[in-house]
């Protein structure tokens, strides 16, 4: 039969203090109850643990053996409690966050900064990729969280925001008051990724709606390579606001929003199914939501 932890705690305190009276005062337990617990412990072990003397109590040889083990066990429990409380206050662990490549530069830095400031013991790894790669990584549980397109995410994903799509050209291509409809944009000489990418899929659907063909002059994988090709005058492209905002502000590229209808894409937070979230993952998720909301307030996208 396993030893009763409460009896061991009471016995240890009595043996350490050498007095039932003092132990009773510190523990807040009546002396008769302490005597009963010690007697039960002695009966369970079949040995005498304490010798009563006029000056108090002294642990027997068996009592000294039990006391040394009891102290180690109680100390270990205290350390476990302290470590658990510390973990609750300062979570630790590895967290892998995947972010769609086109929004990763905008979203990743503030998330990293917030996580480092609030939870320095969390080891956050951020990886960028296209929507299909992020979905595969979630399915394989390579990532704990992924910000991706709703068109490829699991039905259990959580909506985050909607982002306007812009036609992007070389610096000076578009004037501030220029407008372009979706139908007009489909006929432009476009540099687009392959059909596995979300924006390409969205534009293909729009082309079907308008009964026309996309005018694709080049296929290039990668947002930065696509923007470099646009700067070189090889064609135009269509990107989300976050992917081109800094370039537009710095006048290294020009961009105008698509209108009639306004064309947007929805980003969601995808999480592995049937995979319990650690405290570290939960805290990173909270930070991510906060950053998304803050950037939304700054006009980068419309939060959902």
From TrEMBL:
Q: Which InterPro entries match?
A: LysR_HTH_N (IPR000847), LysR_subst-bd (IPR005119), WH-like_DNA-bd_sf (IPR036388), WH_DNA-bd_sf (IPR036390)
Q: Which residues form the HTH lysR-type domain?
A: 3-60
Q: Which UniProt keywords apply?
A: Activator, DNA-binding, Transcription, Transcription regulation
Which Pfam families does the record cross-reference, listed alphabetically?
HTH_1, LysR_substrate
The source's superkingdom equals Bacteria
Query: Which ranges of the sequence are coiled-coil?
Result: none
Record PANTHER family: NITROGEN ASSIMILATION REGULATORY PROTEIN NAC, TRANSCRIPTIONAL REGULATORY PROTEIN NAC-RELATED
Task: Identify its protein family.
Answer: Belongs to the LysR transcriptional regulatory family.
Q: Can you say what this protein is called?
A: LysR family nitrogen assimilation transcriptional regulator
Q: Which organism is it from?
A: Rhizobium herbae
């Amino acid at each position: 039969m396993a030893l009763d932890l409460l009896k061991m705690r009471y016995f240890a305190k009595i043996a350490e203090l050498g007095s039932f009276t003092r132990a009773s005062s510190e523990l807040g337990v009546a002396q008769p109850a302490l005597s009963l617990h010690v007697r039960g412990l002695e009966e369970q072990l079949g040995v005498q643990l304490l010798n009563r003397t006029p000056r108090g109590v002294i642990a027997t040889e068996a009592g000294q053996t039990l006391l040394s083990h009891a102290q180690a066990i109680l100390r270990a429990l205290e350390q476990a409690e302290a470590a658990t409380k510390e973990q609750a206050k300062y979570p630790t662990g590895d967290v892998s966050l995947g972010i769609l490549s086109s929004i990763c530069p905008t979203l990743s830095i503030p998330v990293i900064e917030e996580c480092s400031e609030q939870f320095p013991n969390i080891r956050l790894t951020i990886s960028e990729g296209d929507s299909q790669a992020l979905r595969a990584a979630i399915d394989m549980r390579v990532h704990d969280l992924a910000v991706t397109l709703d068109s490829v995410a699991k039905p259990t994903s959580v909506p985050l925001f909607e982002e306007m799509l812009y036609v992007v050209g070389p610096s000076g291509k578009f004037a501030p008051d220029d407008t372009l409809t979706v139908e007009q944009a489909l006929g432009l000489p476009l540099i687009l990724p392959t059909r596995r990418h979300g924006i390409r899929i969205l534009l293909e659907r729009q082309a079907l709606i308008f009964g026309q063909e996309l005018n694709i002059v080049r296929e290039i994988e990668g947002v930065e390579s696509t923007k470099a090709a646009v700067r070189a005058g090889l064609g135009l492209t269509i990107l989300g606001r976050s992917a081109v905002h800094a370039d537009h502000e710095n006048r290294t590229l020009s961009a105008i929003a698509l209108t009639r209808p306004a064309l947007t894409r929805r980003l969601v937070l995808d999480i592995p199914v049937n995979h319990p979230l650690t405290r570290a993952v939960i805290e990173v998720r909270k930070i991510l939501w906060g950053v998304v909301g803050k950037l939304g307030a700054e006009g980068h996208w419309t939060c959902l």
